[in-house]
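Example is below:
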Amino acid sequence: MSQHLSKLCIQAEKKLAQLGQKRQDSHLSVQLNQQQHQALSQMISAYRGTKEGTNVLLWKNACGMVQVLEPMQVKLAQKSEFLQQEQLRIDRLWQKQLGRQQGLRWFEKQTHLQNEARVARRDQSVLDDMAGFYYKKKNV
């Protein structure tokens, strides 16, 4: 029983470590996506800042770039929403696994303490029997 419980604890710790890595990767993906979105927004703002009175070719080029970049920004916003939902899902899985792992550790400790108490009671019983036997022999 104890060995099986130890194996379960080890498996729970491994799964927790795997989910922890996924959680960290997910967090980094969200951050990277936010940085990309911010950079794209700055580019769009820069191209929109091009004055109409400047060179016509530059102005037309800036308008074309805005038309190309805006759909990219929309896709990044959609990707951001998906990544945030995925991050929340992985966080919930990690928290569940953490609870399982801690519960198994607690149960393993309790089982160990109960076994130690059982051995101590058995040893005490043997000592009591020996003392009783010795006392009876001495008084006969």
